[in-house]
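Ticket closed. Logging final result for DUF4136 domain-containing protein.
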Amino acid sequence: MKKQFVSIVLVLASLSVSAQRLKTQEGDFKNLKGIDTYSLVFDYTDVQIPKFDNEEAFLKDKMDKREEKKAGDGERFKNDWFNDRPDKYHPKFIESFNKRFDDNELSVSEDAAEYTMKIHTTKIYPGYNVGIVRHNAEIDATVIIYETGNENNILFSGSYRDVQGSGAMGYDYNSGYRISECYAKLAKNMAKEFNKRVL
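Final structure:
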């Protein structure tokens, strides 16, 4: 029984790792050699939320439930949902990516640069933590790298599925924090690819 349990855990772990691998869609990492700075752009167009038809349906559901309990909480949730992007997700990605290059061989920021790295988030699952039960947040994202001002000149694009964020030793009760950890993991995965295939 113990061996069977260990086997199941190993299978689930391997599925999680494989889901978070980069799947190349266009271009090649060799096109990125010699580039040391990227301007980051974050895109949430048509982002999907599991179990909901679209982001609008998700927000309506969450806002209505909060408004029933306390007036104004629905609007606060909506504001936090959008404000967490520039306030939490973007800085977390930048910090996580840049710290993996000790000698500043590569860096990303939201400042202007000759080349752009677009992070198009296509799915956000906020996860949950209700004390005795929790689930990591997850995102799907497509990374597109192109010459700034010429988005049709794609040097590389690839996608990640089910990138999970975890942190705070289980004390991640805030959905914005949980989701921000997904962006930290996404940046870590991307930096690993750059270290292995570009530098």
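The longest helix spans residues 73-98. No further action required.
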